[in-house]
Amino acid sequence: MINANLNSCLSFINSQSAPTVGRPAGVKRAVTISRQAGCGAQSIAEKLASHLQQHSPPGQATWTVFDRDLMHQVLADHNLPGHLEKFLPEDRVSAIEDTLADIFGVRPTTQTLVQQTAETLLKFAELGSVILIGRAGNIVTAKVPHVLHVRLVAPLEDRIERIARDDHKTLAEAREFCVGEELARTRYVKTYYNADINDPLMYHMVINTSLLGCEMTAKLIAEALLRLP
């Protein structure tokens, strides 16, 4: 699985760095998606990539979605072993655990790993034609002018039903997952970026996916991206 994900990342990078002779330069664009658990972010991102690809000029790099596979690329970028992926959760890590790991040289500190993640996010955003899900991508790329920042939200009960259906969980398990993920992502952004993930001013758009559905949400984001100055 790791090799497959790395191949996907490398394929994207190679397509972006391919010679541009005979290709229209085009305008670089990228999207960051911050999401509440169970909003359908992955499905929306895939529909968005497909829609943008259909409306891209000939020769432009393939639109690519980076979510969990982003962490494989972070490890590859910084020559880190694959087992460190488990130390890259979208959550804060215990200060005691971090200190002991640093003292005994078990792994880089979480702050270092977060910094390396940010570097990879920024690299991809600057290349363009990417949809980056999570990891405070909107904050990391805030000064990159061609990036559109989106926040996906939905009522908790709707998100619970989606998780239970898609991930074959009981409603109780889905509720626990949604609440736990939300707390984890909130802690991650607050701990490492001193920001509030729910602050609407950090995004170009905040969309209720329960009201619009995945297909309409993807089209709305695409339209906004194409109109980005």
Question: If you had to describe this structure to a student in words, what would you say it looks like?
Answer:
The chain has 229 residues and is α/β, with parallel strands linked by helices. It has one domain: P-loop containing nucleotide triphosphate hydrolases (Rossmann fold), CATH 3.40.50.300. Helices cover 53% and strands 10% of the residues. It is built from nine helices and five strands, in the order αβαβαααβαβααβα. It has helices at 2-17, 41-54, 69-77, 95-103, 110-127, 137-140, 156-166, 171-193, 209-226; strands at residues 30-35, 64-66, 130-133, 147-153, 205-208. The protein has a five-stranded parallel sheet, with helices on both faces. The longest helix has 23 residues, at 171-193.
In short:
This protein is α/β, with parallel strands linked by helices and 229 residues long. The protein has helices spanning 2-17, 41-54, 69-77, 95-103, 110-127, 137-140, 156-166, 171-193, 209-226, and strands at 30-35, 64-66, 130-133, 147-153, 205-208.
